[in-house]
Amino acid sequence: IGTTMDAYLDAWFGEKSGLFADALTVSPYLGLGATAEGFAKWASEGKGVYSLVATSNPQGETVQRATLNGTTLAGDQWNQLSELNGPKFGPYGAVIGATIDFKSFGIDESLQNVPILAPGFGAQGALLSDARQIYGELANNVTFSVSRSVLNVGPSGLIQAIDLANAELARALNQ
To answer: For residue 72, what are the β-bridge partners?
Structure first.
């Protein structure tokens, strides 16, 4: 798994990659340790990894809210990401959907060192105007994502849709 993960990371982050990226979303089911071993090199170069933790798709709840030794799988992944980052805000992030209930997924909101990628706005039902309410103290750690609701307007309305989404988010975060 380690060599496969190294090749996967190199394909996205490597200098010779046509896919050269700043961050990558990964599935935690190979074990976060498999990512951590190869990722250290890329983290030192300013790259980031977002691990799926608690997604907005209802089909994922069965797995993400499953418990082992009294902890949900989502909560365990969140805790591991926090440990990998250490005491500082780090390169290991979590995908946490805007439509989930943090407590039922076992996510400890007191851990402030994990970046969050937040899908679930727009087409999936969450409103950017509720961003601060949804993420609370963690809102400053969030990259908010709208895709379908912006892209669905088509090429001629794209700039206006992006501007409207940005304005809605700015109002929500400055309340």
So the answer is: 67
CB burial of 25-56 (b: ≥16 within 10 Å; e: otherwise) equals ebebeeebebbbebbeebbeeebbbbbbbbbb
Strands 71-72 and 92-96: unpaired
Residues 15-72 pLDDT 10s: 888 887 899 888 888 788 777 777 888 888 899 999 999 998 889 999 999 998 999 9
Question: Cα–Cα distance between 118 and 63 in angstroms, integer?
Answer: 19
Share of the chain above pLDDT 90, in %: 65
pLDDT of residue 5: 81
Contact 99, 125 (CB under 8 A): yes
Q: Rounded to an integer, what is the distance from CA 135 to the centroid of its chain? A: 12
Q: What spatial distance separates the first Cα and last Cα of the chain, rounded to whole Å?
A: 45
Task: Find the range with the poorest average confidence among 36-40, 127-131, 145-149.
Answer: 36-40
Backbone angles phi, psi at 113, to 5 degrees: -105, 15
Q: Are 116 and 93 in contact (CB under 8 A)?
A: yes
Q: Give the model's pLDDT for residue 117.
A: 97
* Residue 103 CB contacts under 8 Å (≥ 6 apart), including other chains: none
